[in-house]
Amino acid sequence: MFPTPIEKRSRAAQITYQSLLPVALILWLLPLIAVMLFSIRPFSDFGAGNYWGVPSSFELFTNYGRVFFESDMPRYLLNSVLITVPTVIGAVALSCMTGFALGIYRFRGNLLIFFMFIAGNFVPFQILMVPVRDLTVSMGLYDTKLGLVLFHIAFQTGFCTLFMRNFIRALPYELIEAARVEGVAEWRIFWFVVLPLMRPAIAALSVLIFTFIWNDYFWALVLTQGPGAQPVTAGITSFNSQFVAQYHLMSAGSIVAAIPPVAIFFLMQRHFIAGLTLGAVK
Amino acid sequence: MRSIFKTGAAALAVTTIIAGSAFAQDLSGTLRIISDMSDPAPRAVMEGLAAEFDEMHPNLTVNLTVVDREAWKTQIRNALSANPPDVVNWYAANRMAPFVNAGLFMDITEWWDAGDFAGLESVRGALTQNDRVWGVPYTYYQWGVYYREDIFNELGLSEPETWEQELANCQIIIDSGRHCYAIGSRFLWPAGGWFDYLNMRTNGFDFHMALARGEVPWTDDRVRATFANWRQLIDMGGFIPDHQTYDWQEALPLMINGEATAYLMGNFAVDLMRSGGLTDDQLDFYQFPMINPEVTAMGEDAPTDTFHVAAGAQNVEAARAFLQFVTSAEVQTRINGPEGLGQLPVNANASVADDEFIQQGFEMLSQNATGGIAQFFDRDWPAEMASVGMEGLQEFMVFPDRLDDILDRLEAARQRVY
Amino acid sequence: MTAPATPLHQPRLEATWMQRNRMTVTPILFLLPGLLFFLVYVISPIFQSFNISLYRWDGLGEARFIGLDNYRELATDRNFEISLWNNLRWLVLYLLAIPLGLFIALFLNQTVTGIRLYKSLFFFPFVLSQVVVGLVFSWFYLPREGLLNAALQFFGLGTVNILGNPDLATYGIIAAGLWPQTAYCMILYLTGLNAVDPEQVEAGRLDGAKGWKMLWYVILPQLKPATFIAFVVTIIGALRSFDLISIMTNGGPFGSTRVLSFYMFEQALGEYGFRMGYGSAIAVVLFGIMLVFIAYFLWQMWRDERAARHG
């Protein structure tokens, strides 16, 4: 193990390390802690210039209550869910298939198609912006959740294919051979042999894509406007304009907007990190 | 706030029944409105109007979307071209030009000619471009200096009428450990307001408009004189620091807590000043003082906010009825009162609310604005020039030494834009 | 394909055709939906953008072919130049996330009680959206209300208005971007460190390698895959920087924090007229920069792919 495990070091080193950990963590999360502290203050504290002293009263429930009951925030959150979940399902389903095709079969152009998916995944969004916006408008899907979902599925298919194909590559090929020898149809091999083995990959990818899509801002800006279809990342700017200069409410609003992906992460941590670090180890 | 709409709706329902107005009955479908009235008081007004109009027409559903006022400036084009609603908010004068030229606003000259908007004749000009009319106004408001009367009294100051008095006042305020002016220039336009007033007072209204039309180079000595006056205030520490980081609303607390004594703003700011805790005893208003004794006819900024029908509107009949509704004398009186927008009605038959600031503004604009009435920097200048210009104005307020470079850039933009 | 000899044989023959070609037909069928989506929404728009960049077009009316005029205009556009330089700053400084992430990973790679929770808490800024990160940091930087200046003042250091100062604002935004990006690199390295071969570490120890030497000669070579991925995601992140700028400064003050991705958006979808052609030209330049890296990444991956085949 590197660096040397701390328990093999001197007692003093151990104590230093143990006390350094929380300090480092607080420093690391300082900006976020600041926002949390803002979000439980009453408005009057800001007028009085009391930004960092003891809050004159504890307003957690009032502030967060106003976020939920006096703004469009719940609607934006719902939009985010309605955009994110179908995208996750669509992208994962499509990439299970493409990954299967590229990972199992040998045919001319296999590698070329695979690399096309990878390359497309790296391009800057801006090169797609004008044509994609045009396409969405001409299909009558501008400012709809569906318009966003379709694009997200398509774009995420690049990354997901890379992920799935590499995962399938690592599966024991003998299983498939054996099934073929027994005369099992190809689509049944996919469904009954490969798919069950892909469960961990599907879980990991779903969590990852969930966060990516939930956090998207650029496409939400390009393809939607207004509380009818906008997800929470874009909606938060309108939220902030409703409560402009009221830092306690704006802080509470951003925390609310951030909670779903954070919750998903803490609940599904193992899958999340497995997905993120695929390929970081040989 | 809600109550004024309830009673109003009832009153209006009665009048429409009596008048038997044709448009009131057979409206159906959906009326989609996108509004940029996102501050608390205007938002309540807009939501009230939508609800009331919805109630008046049983077969019509009013679908209102309120978007962030600053964000709307970049979204409107997208909204009008990709998925046009029926009615949108915007601004009068040159600020309409890009949308008029792109064919995104509906030409509603006929509605004006048909007498839909009685009482609005005097403001028709601000909505006219290429001899056609492209929208209706719903409010306008004076600009001027809102100041802390209590602090002025404490320091023994009175409302300045000349630039010398203004500078003397400011010096006393600074000596008392305060700043003279709050301003938040993050979204640039508040700096535009300062330029408007300094330039109109230094060079007169006509010169100001000539500059707006692109007839005078930005490097002209008269323009430099304006900036030199501005610089006096900047150099003495008249403005709050770090204003480029704040919205105009975020800079308000400094005036409310007394760190700054005044704010050059439009009358819409009064609502937030009051809700921030300032009483009418602490707050007063004066007209921007004279600078150049030769410029005796004062020019004033009085921006007009508007409604337009999108060229791609689906429910044109409902849109037309809605425009009639918001511009009618009765609604105008109601929404512009201190309970609502706190601004001036556009309909000549509406009454101006009995509010200290609204009355002062009305008086100033009708009696002491003989130089002429301008819309505002970002509405009188062509849109692209305004954007480059205001960026330069903000930069000047932070780095006054860069003036030459800024003016060269503005001049280059002028030659490109016009 | 041969025509069936007699109708009687047709079903059997067809089955054999399917059977014979199932290894070609199956992958095609499985690829088709994903590939179609990807071609329509990703690949073909790239080429369309190239094409649009040769036109003057407001997104509504008739597009007018103007050849390379958009690119000529770029060459004299001050804001384009500012954006390009800022992109360079982003590229270089964003890479700091890699050593920083490695440093934190080394710090946290212990087995004391509660370390798992520490690791999660160090990592989770990464799952926040850039919008939230941007808001959090812009409030953190506020000249009066922000914690940063409260802390500076506490230590008697005066205040600094990072986002209001054109010379500092870009760096302030990059610092905000480094926060989640460092967390990402950290988790990559933590996973990598987990897999470091203990025998090699022991062997290194016997050879007298310690501290920095051990890190440089024994550990880092084994972390190469993690470093490669960290490099890829950091470069892409740097060139995609849009959200933070849009939220934190909106390109200001006085346009000093624009980058190509933001400037492109401003031009193409701005209030003062959609300049789709000009915007596309900016996007093409950005794409060109990215292409250098994409080519490098693909080349690396292709090498790995070949090694895997032969191995």
TrEMBL record, chain A:
The keyword Transmembrane applies. The chain crosses the membrane at residues 20-40, 76-104, 111-129, 149-168, 189-214, 247-268. GO terms for cellular component: plasma membrane. It is a multi-pass membrane protein. It is found in: Cell membrane. Keywords: Cell membrane, Membrane, Transmembrane, Transmembrane helix, Transport. It comes from the Bacteria. Pfam families: BPD_transp_1 (PF00528). GO terms for biological process: transmembrane transport. Residues 77-268 form the ABC transmembrane type-1 domain. InterPro entries: MetI-like, MetI-like_sf. The keyword Cell membrane applies. Belongs to the binding-protein-dependent transport system permease family. This is Carbohydrate ABC transporter membrane protein 2 (CUT1 family).
From TrEMBL, chain B:
Residues 1-24 form the signal peptide. It comes from Roseicyclus mahoneyensis. It is found in: Periplasm. This is Carbohydrate ABC transporter substrate-binding protein (CUT1 family). SUPFAM superfamilies: Periplasmic binding protein-like II. Belongs to the bacterial solute-binding protein 1 family. The keyword Signal applies. Its main location: periplasm. PANTHER family: ARABINOSE-BINDING PROTEIN-RELATED, BLR3389 PROTEIN. It comes from the Bacteria. Keywords: Signal. GO terms for cellular component: periplasmic space. It holds the Pfam family SBP_bac_1.
Automatic annotation (TrEMBL), chain C:
It is a multi-pass membrane protein. Residues 83-299 form the ABC transmembrane type-1 domain. Gene3D superfamilies: MetI-like (1.10.3720.10). It comes from the Bacteria. GO terms for biological process: transmembrane transport. InterPro entries: ABC_transporter_permease (IPR051393), MetI-like (IPR000515), MetI-like_sf (IPR035906). Its main location: membrane. It is found in: Cell membrane. The chain crosses the membrane at residues 28-47, 88-109, 121-141, 171-194, 214-237, 277-299. The keyword Cell membrane applies. Keywords: Cell membrane, Membrane, Transmembrane, Transmembrane helix, Transport. It holds the Pfam family BPD_transp_1. Belongs to the binding-protein-dependent transport system permease family. This is Carbohydrate ABC transporter membrane protein 1 (CUT1 family). It comes from Roseicyclus mahoneyensis.
